[in-house]
């Protein structure tokens, strides 16, 4: 059996004394596109950050491809939730994207031609080549999302952890970004996206995880997870309001 792309055991995370994830266990297989779902405040962003030790957990272990994060850093990409990023940081779109390649460089090595080319190709892929020299503080919401998408593409990881990549993007951009994700899946990449639009989950996600009440409520192939009852437990509203378009 192939190892899981991500394996989480007994993960408990608290902010001060407020426990937001309690003994979470989760295993996601390689090659799937997983929708990480749950109400606002359910702990989706926290789950991703704690897995990467950006928010040190109180307890628990996480492995990627059967190894600790530090051993496989370059294979794991992370796109933070745009709302949680300091966009006033003085840097250009190009340098932000180029930074995505740094994990693949050794210590004390500077980016060279292959890294510059990867950054350029990633900008082209998401259609923002013309913004390369723009300060990131001067981008629209959708352009910020594309910048972060380009950064994770430039890194070229095997596992993409993406926190709300579609937040604030228009319909045309959402379609274009979805095609990029489908293309990645077809290359065998593993993708986890925090997503709020339940109506589109089944269009491109093969796996789903529902978070609620500090726990994983349900995890598995999208058809099995996407039941009215489980959605009701995750979102706490009447199942008929959650009926999905296909
Ligand atoms: N830095 C922090 N300090 C204190 N509490 C926090 C912090 N970050 C998040 N929380 C709290 O932890 C809980 C989980 O937050 P988290 O950001 O993980 O939720 P989420 O599922 O990503 O929500 P959303 O859909 O709104 O992005 C929330 O109750 C939130 O208020
Ligand atoms: Mg979040």
UniProtKB/TrEMBL annotation:
SMART domains: AAA. It holds the Pfam family ABC_tran. Keywords: ATP-binding, Nucleotide-binding, Transport. It comes from the Bacteria. The keyword Nucleotide-binding applies. PANTHER family: IRON TRANSPORT SYSTEM ATP-BINDING PROTEIN HI_0361-RELATED, METAL TRANSPORT SYSTEM ATP-BINDING PROTEIN TM_0124-RELATED. This is Manganese ABC transporter ATP-binding protein. It comes from Boudabousia liubingyangii.
